[in-house]
Amino acid sequence: MRTGVDIDRNIEDASALIREAADGGARFIATPETTALMELGAKRLFANIVAEEEDRALKAFQDLASELGVHLLIGSLAVKVASDKAANRSFLLSPEGEIAARYDKIHMFDVDLGNGEAYRESKNYQAGEMSVLADLPLLGLGGKLGMTVCYDLRFPHLYRQLAQGGAGYLTVPSAFTKPTGEAHWHVLLRARAIEAGCFVFAPAQGGTHENGRETFGHSLIIDPWGDILAEAGTDPCVILAEIDPAKIEDARDRIPSLTHDRAIIASDTPTDV
To answer: Among 183, 161, 182, 180, which Cα is nearest to 170's?
Structure first.
């Protein structure tokens, strides 16, 4: 996607892509981070967002999931949780249009990129505190879905915890900056897939947005061996892949690293060799 500042237009654009995916045979569909609004300024952000129960974008997507009979992951919506704080919240919607799971982004993107770009996500957003695993019974795929968002990608222990908790599939809806995406997007996503022995679904924002932000794009679907099954460019589009759940067990049988964790004791005392 290339989300802008007009929520109704963003709902319309996202809905058209979701319908296209469903027409292509998709039974699980995922959209990027900040699906309904790409807004960095605090004043404009809080003038446009509401509490979850009042969010018209969420309601529209619930109706769409029910109409199409699909599992729909809305990568994230900004929902108001206090007068001066929002949650960057990912929603898994059931084929009945119910909220099957919700996840608040844990890791806040507070960085200075050194090229004049700086971000302080924690100024406007309240960090989540809990990882989330969800069921996908419609797909009959076995295993659970581990939900994450964007900057979470840089914290491998989160994905290991999800995999060891039963996840066979990981979602990483994102709005990576162009510089960080060019440097790290592919390698980090492939690494998380390989380390966890999971399929990774990473829908992304791409291109130059109305607010001037430039995002990397390149939505990816990756299998548990780290192979890329589908990739987008930067323009809004749909990518599709068929998922073979047997690849999860196969990858984990070949490299059973999820069962090989050992406690590490740190020491600041030099050891003679």
So the answer is: 161
